[in-house]
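ok so I'm stuck.
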Amino acid sequence: MSEVVIPSCLRPIDLDGLAKLGETGKANPNTVKTMKSKTVLEGQFKNFNYIRDLDPIVVDEPPVLLGEDTAPNPSEMALLSLGSCLSVGVQANASNRGIPLTKLEVHLEGDINITAVWGTGDLDPEKPLGVTEVRASFVIEAPGTDKSVLEELVAHAMKWSPVANTYMNNVKLSGELVG
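replied:
not stuck anymore, here's the structure
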């Protein structure tokens, strides 16, 4: 059996690249990037999602929601996107402050009422739709770093995370049939 090697710190990010990104953001504070994706239904509730030139990302539903249970469902994907965004924020800011991390985990729990069943179930107009509460807990190890500094990193990541802000802010959403 091979020995498990625990790194002395997590794989670092490019600090020069981080500095350049930060300077670009300061120089162009009103820049808005348009992201694009395409979702193609394979059948039942399994979807293939395409972003940039990457391999498709599968999204499915669990059996209790009539899916094949081959991948996370859409709400779980939103939750894992939040966890990844918060992780990126902590890592970027720890790196920017010269704090080497040896461990970073983001644990999330999200509450969602699914009884509307995509508009086919309980359609009480007073029902809160979507995720109504998310609880995040962070496991961060940075030897020699005071707990208050790690708490600052978490608070900063929560404040500036684009995905966290998508959860917290109203987003304009439109839809139209084009074909």
